[in-house]
Amino acid sequence: MWVVLLPGLLMPRRMHDHLARSLASAGAHVVTLDLLGHGRSDRPDDPFAYSVTAFAHQVVALLDEVGAGEAVIGGTSLGANVSLEVAAIAPERVRGLLVEMPVLDNALEVAIVSFAPLLLAARVLPIAFTSLRFVTRRVPRGIVPWWVGIGLDSVDHKPGPLAAYVHGLFFGRVAPPASERRRIKAPTLVVGHPRDPLHPTSDAEMLAKELPNATFDRAGSILEWRRSPERLDLMATKFVLDCWRPARRTRRTAN
Fold it and tell me: Does the keyword DNA repair apply (predicted)?
């Protein structure tokens, strides 16, 4: 019973530590992955190394490495989009999908406004990012709250790889188009948040309607799975267990 959890944009894999422990306590083999450019993974300066499709191939390679024929693939934000891409390029490897706040059609304008300045600043003001790293790296992670540590890790990026990372995602394929999403048959749990312009609830609701085997849940806020995760952890655990239950055989009726 394999599960792979993928982090959000620029975040390390340990953002899913709590959910991973909950799933593991239910008997799942859980792997949290630092995609290229994240956490402890390599961070090349080449923009062509970064794309949602490239990240999806990394997930498939991980499944090969651990000997998992299938897995429930889940993620947040960027990780949600990568999960959908895995289902598009390798549907036979996907037992189910856990998709939290995907970034799709309705987030386009906000994504451009949010990340274009980041790309420009990393190119023309690299000293700002170098200085930020100098400060944040000196904060011991053990003395700050867990989510503060996640935030500190999320800004720990060298300007060159950061610019390449944003450039690759900005100009590449962000997610499978609607025509491909409608062909994804894996059971899917979609979680959306209110009042989140970069991850609008409309994207999550649209995705749940497009996928033939999807269930939608509206979180109380973007902080619910961070600060009060019990309800969503329980929902995700039940979903994963249901994905791995053997399909019921249809009883034959004698003529």
Answer: no
CA distances from 201 to 82, 164, 198, 220 (A): 18, 29, 10, 11
- Nearest of 59, 84, 79, 55 to residue 7 by alpha carbon: 79
- The tens digit of pLDDT for each residue in 86-104 reads 999 999 999 999 999 999 9
d(CA 157, CA 23): 30
Number of H helices, E strands in the chain: 11, 6
Rounded Cα gap, residues 59 and 185, in angstroms: 19
How many alpha carbons lie under 13 Å from residue 131 in its C-beta half-sphere? 5
pLDDT per position as a tens digit, 112-169 = 888 888 888 888 888 988 998 888 888 988 888 888 888 888 888 889 999 999 888 8
Give the predicted TM-score (pTM) of the model: 0.91
Cα–Cα distance, 27 to 80 (Å, whole number): 23
CATH superfamily of domain region 2-107+174-244: Alpha/Beta hydrolase fold, catalytic domain (3.40.50.1820)
Q: Using CA atoms, how far apart are residues 135 and 133, in angstroms rounded to an integer? A: 5
